[in-house]
Recover the amino acids of this structure.
């Protein structure tokens, strides 16, 4: 597809279970971002990948959260031992890396809605 | 990241212009001003960005103050489809770093 694709679109899980959320960025985009948005709140940055550089993990809320990006393309966000406060929409975005212009417009997917019971 | 300040909410009538303000008094010389918007139940989408000069595109115009400490996103004729949360974000040049979203301005458009 032409846009950022995320799956699953909806996930309901029980507290304590592990979940994996997948993001398929736009082809050719070297930068990939994960954000989460709790109900009625703004976007919270989680992690950022840029090419082969070490990811910026500064937004991950705890060590239960991890993400990887294989082959510079698809990314998986994993949440271990889910808690009710992890319930949110998890948004993935990708962009081209540009230099000097401050652009690199982010293209967002439609998100994965996670509900932890 | 330098901070931006926006009103929590604004209202507009349909087909009237809308001016969405953003203050960024601590902006650095290399920061670009980006605007994104988030329609209900969707991910954010890019609207416009600029550095010093005013900018126009098919979606909106961006007016940047001469001292760059504030900017205004202008929707020339608001429609019901423009009802969204609008985010003003500063982004350093020369990098594809993360965008830090604030709380934005929720725009309501009424008939």
């Amino acid at each position: 597809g032409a846009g950022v694709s995320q799956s699953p679109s909806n996930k309901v899980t029980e507290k304590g279970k592990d979940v994996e959320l997948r993001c398929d960025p736009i082809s050719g985009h070297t930068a990939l971002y994960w954000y989460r948005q709790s109900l009625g709140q703004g976007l919270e940055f989680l992690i950022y990948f840029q090419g082969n550089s070490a990811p910026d993990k500064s937004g991950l809320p705890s060590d239960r959260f991890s993400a990887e990006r294989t082959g510079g393309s698809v990314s998986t966000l994993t949440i271990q031992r889910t808690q009710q406060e992890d319930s949110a929409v998890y948004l993935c975005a990708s962009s081209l890396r540009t230099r000097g212009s401050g652009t690199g417009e982010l293209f967002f997917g439609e998100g994965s809605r996670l509900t932890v019971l | 990241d330098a901070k931006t300040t926006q009103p929590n909410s604004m209202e507009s009538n349909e087909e009237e212009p809308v001016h969405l303000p953003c203050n960024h008094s601590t902006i650095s010389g290399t920061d670009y001003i980006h605007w994104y918007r988030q329609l209900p139940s969707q991910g954010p989408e890019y609207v416009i960005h600029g550095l010093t000069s005013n900018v126009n595109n098919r979606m909106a115009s961006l007016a940047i103050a001469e001292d760059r400490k504030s900017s205004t996103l202008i929707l020339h004729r608001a429609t019901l489809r423009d009802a969204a949360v609008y985010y003003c974000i500063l982004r350093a040049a020369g990098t594809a770093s993360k965008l830090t979203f604030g709380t934005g301005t929720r725009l309501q458009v009424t008939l």
